Inverse folding.
């Protein structure tokens, strides 16, 4: 049973009603097909209306959905022969980030991503997908290896943020993130970053400096969580809904702000409704993205990466 | 009686009496934020806003910082006219920026440029925490990236003094992206052999500590500066534990291997000058 979100309750209710009528038809041998057909038409309209007009806060709920597909789900669907490798060689292995190599359309690639758990037990093991410095350093180790062996890098972004903990600070959370930004800037292989769930601030960005940045339709990418923004702006985290709109955190907003390259569509109702379909949508964009990047020389790649980031921001000149 | 007298005398010996304070024009006196002793502002300024009693480093405004480091009349400002837009059409943002522009006399929270330190040319950026708490938006990212790029083109070092509460929330993801923009500029500069020195001053946190502040060839900090990624309150809420008083201070970061050196402001120019000398191009002999 899928977890039902507030905004989709009318759809679920109507679906239940239809199912009920169908059962009744079957059990009682009374023909209700006309009524059913009317309700199904109404359902189609309702679905188009609700799913076609998702508000930023609805998308936040979808991005955080407990059953939303994770990095490992996509690795399983999109790649072959994935081998996961562990550890940063400095301190430990952070399971909030997975990394390894795999074939994508018969070509070796390095795949790295934040990894949430799907239940409490796994979430504890993976620290709810919130990395410590060793996670970022593991990621960097793999990126450097990808560079050595000329493998493109694909990063999946899905985190509430870098873990705000004591040990994380002691081991240099800031430095680990900063180092990744700087080293990713200079990688001599194509880097593609895809936000699949929540893109939470610096902890997301530390896997997010690339040649092309894509976002799933219902994913979010933000400098601060809507709750955090609300508590700073309006001294009340209950205004999170409003903050989700003001902060412009959806794929559509960020495309307009020229921060991302592509919006990857999701199946009706969100990625968790149909993993195969979602993987297919993702595959299409990923393949095109890779193809377009493979044609560039290292110099071109680096120059374009600089040009890409150089233009992000808005300012004016006075006097 | 005597004891009272001496006690009083002692208490007021080095600091002006209440009456004297009332008689002097406002702003003449300054209370140390560390030990709360009261000094003549001029005395504190002469000591570069470092308390002569307890060594507390008071925040310096951008241009005061430049005065403490650069040879007289050598500093030339870059991109002074850049000012912020309102990319998210964020309610009240422009007014807040205007207010801080009036308050500080700056167009934004960072001053960039170049000058000489003991005759040695260097590019420079200094953040001012009195402007929107030093938060980083598009203008700060752009000015720093341009300064680093200028340093690369001119083949001179780049020194930055950071002071920031983190990202500029009102610019949303554009502010986050300034972390990557500056990091790429620094990477290009570093690849060209450029020397970068980062000096973290109070406070250097969030997106600034997690980007350019932490990737200098040398990372320094002023004594007592707050340096860290996540805020103390958030960490305490997360781990449900009270953090030690010295958590995220410069000294804490030094102890945990995150800094090369904690440098007293009174020795800063000397240390930077020596480092510039060590890295002069075309021969490193003393
Ligand atoms: Zn003092």
């Amino acid at each position: 049973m899928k977890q039902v979100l507030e905004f989709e309750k009318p759809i679920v209710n109507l679906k239940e009603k239809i199912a009920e009528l169908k059962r009744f038809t079957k059990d009682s041998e009374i023909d209700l097909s006309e009524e059913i057909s009317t309700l199904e038409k109404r359902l189609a309209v309702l679905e188009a209306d609700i799913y076609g007009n998702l508000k930023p806060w609805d998308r936040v709920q979808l991005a955080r959905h407990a059953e939303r597909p994770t990095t490992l789900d996509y690795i399983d669907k999109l790649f072959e022969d994935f081998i996961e490798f562990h550890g940063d060689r400095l301190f430990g292995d952070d399971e909030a980030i997975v990394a390894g190599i795999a074939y994508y359309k018969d070509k070796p690639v390095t795949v790295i991503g934040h990894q949430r758990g799907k239940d409490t037990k796994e979430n504890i093991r993976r620290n709810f997908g919130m990395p410590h410095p060793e996670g970022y350093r593991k990621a960097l180790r793999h990126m450097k290896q990808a560079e050595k062996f000329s493998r493109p890098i694909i990063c999946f972004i899905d985190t509430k943020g870098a873990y705000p903990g004591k040990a994380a600070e002691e081991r240099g959370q800031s430095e680990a993130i900063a180092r990744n930004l700087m080293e990713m800037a200079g990688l001599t292989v194509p880097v593609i970053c895809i936000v699949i769930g929540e893109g939470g601030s610096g902890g997301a960005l530390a896997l997010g400096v690339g040649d092309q940045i894509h976002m799933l339709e219902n994913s979010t990418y933000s400098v601060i969580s809507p709750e955090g923004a609300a508590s700073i702006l309006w001294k009340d985290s209950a205004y999170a809904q409003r903050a989700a709109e003001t902060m412009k955190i959806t794929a559509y907003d960020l495309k307009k702000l020229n921060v991302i390259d592509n919006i990857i569509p999701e199946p009706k109702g969100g990625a968790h409704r149909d993993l195969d379909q979602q993987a297919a949508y993702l595959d299409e964009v990923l393949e095109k993205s890779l193809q377009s990047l493979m044609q560039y020389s290292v110099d071109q790649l680096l120059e374009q990466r600089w040009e890409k980031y150089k233009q992000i921001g808005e300012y004016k000149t006075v006097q | 009686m005597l004891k009272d007298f001496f006690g009083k005398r002692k208490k007021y010996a080095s600091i002006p009496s209440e009456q004297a304070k009332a008689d002097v024009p406002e702003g003449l006196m300054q209370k140390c934020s560390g030990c709360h002793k009261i000094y003549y502002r001029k005395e504190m300024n002469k000591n570069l806003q470092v308390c002569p009693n307890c060594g507390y480093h008071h925040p310096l405004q951008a241009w005061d910082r430049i005065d403490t480091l650069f040879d007289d009349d050598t500093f030339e400002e870059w991109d002074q006219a850049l000012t912020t837009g309102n990319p998210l059409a964020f309610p009240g943002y422009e007014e807040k920026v205007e207010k801080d522009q009036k308050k500080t006399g700056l167009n934004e929270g960072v001053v960039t440029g170049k000058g000489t330190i003991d005759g040695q040319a260097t590019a420079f950026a200094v953040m001012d925490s009195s402007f929107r708490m030093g938060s980083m938006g598009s203008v700060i990212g752009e000015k720093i990236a341009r300064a680093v790029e200028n340093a690369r083109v001119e083949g001179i070092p780049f020194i930055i003094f950071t002071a920031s509460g983190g990202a500029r929330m009102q610019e949303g993801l554009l502010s986050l992206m300034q972390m990557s923009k500056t990091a790429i500029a620094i990477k290009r500069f570093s690849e060209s052999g450029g020397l970068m020195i980062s000096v973290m001053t109070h406070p250097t946190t969030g997106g600034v500590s997690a980007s350019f502040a932490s990737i200098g060839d040398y990372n320094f900090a002023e004594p007592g500066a707050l340096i860290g990624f996540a805020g103390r309150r958030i960490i305490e809420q997360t781990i449900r534990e009270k953090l030690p008083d010295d958590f995220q201070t410069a000294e804490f970061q030094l102890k945990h291997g995150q800094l090369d050196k904690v440098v007293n402001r009174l020795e800063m120019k000397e240390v930077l000058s020596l480092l510039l000398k060590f890295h002069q191009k075309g021969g490193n002999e003393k």
Q: What stands out?
A: The beta strands of chain A are 80-84, 97-104, 107-114, 153-159, 191-200, 212-216, 220-222, 262-264, 315-317. Residues B 32, 34-35, 37, 51, 53-54, 56 surround zinc ion (CB under 6 Å).
